[in-house]
Amino acid sequence: MKKTLYLSIFTMLSILTMQSCLKDQEDVFERPSSLRLQDVLENTHNTLTTQGLWTLDFYPRAEYYYGGYPMIFKFEKDKVTAWRIKEEEEMGSDADDIILSDESEYKMKDDFGPVLSFDTYNDVIHYFSTPRNTSAWYQAMQGDFEFVVDSVGKDCIKVHGKKSQNTMYLRAFTGDPNDYLTKAAYNKDEFIYAGANITDGGQNVPIGFDLDYRQVVWNKGTENEREIAFCFTGDGIRLSKPITINGQEVDDFILDLNAQTLKSRSGSVTLPLERTPGYMKYNEWLGEYTLTYRNAAGAAPRDTTFTLVATPQKKTFILKGLVDAVDLTVQYNRSLGTIELLVQRLVTTPEGYILLAVWDSATGSVSYTTTYGMRAVWNENRQLYVWTDRGGWSGHTITGFIPYEWYNGTRYAVTSEYYVAKTNRFLPLTIKKNN
């Protein structure tokens, strides 16, 4: 009986407590969550359509991996028109036709929160999530086409990619989309700077630019080195998140190509830019070169010629003339404006494959690591490029290349049609472009 009485009292207290909690919740949230979510969806839609034009610094793949791509959107009731700069592989014969525009549908939806979804194909944004017909791009660029709405203001809407989790901002825009993006493309093409040096709090801080992946390398001591993605804009660059320089938090910079500076929009911070000596744009590398090399350590130098030919994406070159049986692939380092010859597979054979390995002639060691190779570095005194180890192979200095046939875990000498410049011990020294 006593046990039953205690249980009854406990049950009554629990119900009273629950009712009290519910009463508190009703005081805080006067409307059900489903209605509040609907309010957010309607408010976002109304804001997007009332303003009309919005810019977006679009960051595909998690952790801002590829850097930013500028886009502009015009939202109507259930239709969106979008603009972006064409990628190199999309460029046609008309050099002035660099802006891509497409129209599709979109919607605001409830998907465990308010979501802006580009739910029908739009080439402007779905390009970054569509796989290409190459093994390297089978996952595309892992770009978002659905964005969770974090906050809504009159002139700025904060979102994050549903897949990438990258924070991005839709910013109200007034102007001509083609004009803005044409200027952004020009800034991208003309931004040929390796970095900047500034003084921050009495400390010299080198800043580097990775132009292939649109990253700022902010180096305040080894333990504080970090990369911050950026996006080219109509008048400069904008960072994905602010940095603090001499107590000033900045993220938006105006590019002055004449003064070679980046100045914060507030005017409080100026970064003097440094250009890499001998920098050449991609198209400037096309053509014929004279290459000086040795066929053994200490041997007399020899000369030969080769030609660099463009590829659609303009991130690599086809090198013709050094190997009789095949062409080589040369990487373009946009940050430094130079070329790099790396370890690469030349051909697949029934038993295995033939590859070009790097060689440390001082120790006789070879490596097949595909990030190892040599870089052409400008020598101002000699007015030519000198082949130099690009780094990464600990304890070794790469001085040349050796072609090998590899199968069943063993390497074998190749036949002469796979020699480089008619030699199986290729030590490149310099290159100079022929007029």
Descriptive notes:
This protein has four helices and 30 strands. It is mostly beta strands. The strands form four sheets. The protein has a nine-stranded antiparallel beta sheet, with helices on both faces. It has an eight-stranded antiparallel β-barrel with strand order 10-11-12-13-14-15-16-17. It has an eight-stranded antiparallel β-barrel with strand order 18-19-20-21-22-26-27-30. The termini are far apart.
Biggest sheet, strands in spatial order? 4-3-2-1-9-8-7-6-5
What is the radius of gyration?
Answer: 29 Å
Task: Give the beta-strand count.
Answer: 30
Largest sheet: 9 strands, antiparallel
Q: What share of residues are in beta strands?
A: 35-45%
In helices, the fraction of residues equals 10-25%
**Structural class computed from helices and strand pairing:** mainly beta
Task: Provide the fold topology.
Blueprint (H helix, E strand, L loop, with lengths): L1 H27 L4 H19 L1 E6 L10 E7 L3 E7 L13 E7 L1 E4 L3 E4 L5 H4 L19 E7 L3 E6 L5 E6 L4 H14 L2 E8 L2 E8 L4 E4 L7 E7 L3 E10 L2 E9 L4 E4 L5 E6 L11 E8 L7 E9 L5 E5 L7 E6 L4 E5 L1 E5 L4 E8 L4 E3 L5 E7 L4 E6 L10 E8 L2 E4 L13 E7 L2
Question: How would you summarize this macromolecular structure in one to three sentences?
Answer:
Helix content is 15%, strand content 44%. The protein has 435 residues and is mainly beta.
